[in-house]
C-alpha cells in the first residue's frame, strides 16, 4: 500500500513539474525571459512559488529542464529514430532536415525568446549552449549514418559535412527561410534537402550506370 501511495505521489510531483515547465514555456515565448518572473510562472501554473523552487530550483535552473520539454514537443525522439533507421543516404538526410523543421515549426517561438535574451542574461548561456550541442550532435549522427550507407561524397570531409548540415538547419537559418524569404515550411524543407544532397551526398547511379 505504501508503494502505491509513493507511486501516486511521484506521479503528482511529475505532473506538477510538467505544469510548471509548460507555464514557463508559454510565458517566456509570450513575454520574453527577462520580463517573466518566478511569481508569474507560479501564478500561470497554479502553484506556490516554493513549489517551483522545490521541483526545479531557480528560474535559471528550470532552463535545462525546459530544453527536454522542447524536445518532447518537437517529437525529437521518434524523428531521431527515423534518421538512424533510414535505409538510403537521401532518406537519412531528409529525416534529419525534417527533425530540425519540426523543432523550429513547433518550438521556434520559445527558442527565439531564449536566444534573444541570451546576450543579456548570463544564466541563459548554459541552456543555449546545450541546445546548440544537441543540434551539432544531431548533424554528426546524420552524417555518420550517411557514411554507414556509403553515401557521403568522397571529396567532402565528414567534419565539413556535419558543419554544413548544422549551419543550414539551425534556428537562424530556418527563421531566415520562413520569415526573411517567406517560404512555407514544405518549400523550405524541400529546398534544404535538395541543396544539401547536392553538397554532401555522393551521386547515385541509375540502372544504366550513369550518375544522377
3D structure, described in words:
The protein is mostly helical. Helices cover 75% and strands 0% of the residues. The protein contains ten helices and no strands. Helix 1 crosses helix 2, helix 1 packs across helix 6 and helix 8 runs antiparallel to helix 10 (185-200). The radius of gyration is 21 Å and the shape is elongated. The chain starts with a helix and ends in a 12-residue tail after the last helix.
The structure class reads: mainly alpha
Task: Count the beta strands.
Answer: 0
Kindly report the average pLDDT value. Answer: 87
Uncertain regions: pLDDT < 50 for 5+ in a row?
206-210
Largest sheet: none
Query: What is the molecular shape?
Result: elongated
How much strand?
under 5%
Q: Radius of gyration over alpha carbons? A: 21 Å
Distance between the termini: 66 Å
**Counting H and I runs of at least 4 residues, what is the number of helices?**
10
- What's the helical proportion of residues? over 70%
Amino acid at each position: 500500500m505504501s508503494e502505491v501511495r509513493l507511486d501516486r505521489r511521484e506521479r503528482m510531483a511529475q505532473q506538477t513539474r510538467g505544469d510548471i515547465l509548460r507555464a514557463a514555456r508559454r510565458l517566456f515565448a509570450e513575454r520574453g525571459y527577462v520580463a517573466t518572473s518566478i511569481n508569474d510562472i507560479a501564478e500561470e501554473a497554479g502553484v506556490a512559488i516554493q513549489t517551483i523552487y522545490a521541483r526545479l530550483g531557480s528560474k535559471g535552473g528550470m532552463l535545462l529542464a525546459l530544453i527536454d520539454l522542447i524536445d518532447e514537443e518537437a517529437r525529437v525522439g521518434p524523428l531521431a529514430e527515423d534518421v538512424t533507421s533510414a535505409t538510403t543516404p537521401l532518406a537519412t538526410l531528409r529525416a534529419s532536415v525534417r527533425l530540425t523543421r519540426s523543432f523550429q515549426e513547433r518550438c521556434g517561438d520559445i527558442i527565439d525568446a531564449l536566444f534573444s535574451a541570451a546576450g543579456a542574461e548570463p544564466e541563459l548561456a548554459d541552456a543555449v549552449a546545450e541546445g546548440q550541442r544537441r543540434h551539432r550532435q544531431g548533424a554528426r549522427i546524420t552524417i555518420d549514418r550517411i557514411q554507414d550507407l556509403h553515401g557521403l561524397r568522397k571529396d567532402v570531409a565528414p567534419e565539413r559535412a556535419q558543419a554544413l548540415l548544422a549551419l543550414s538547419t539551425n534556428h537562424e537559418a530556418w527563421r531566415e527561410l520562413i520569415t526573411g524569404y517567406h517560404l512555407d515550411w514544405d518549400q523550405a524543407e524541400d529546398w534544404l534537402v535538395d541543396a544539401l544532397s547536392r553538397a554532401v551526398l555522393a551521386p547515385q547511379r541509375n540502372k544504366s550506370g550513369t550518375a544522377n
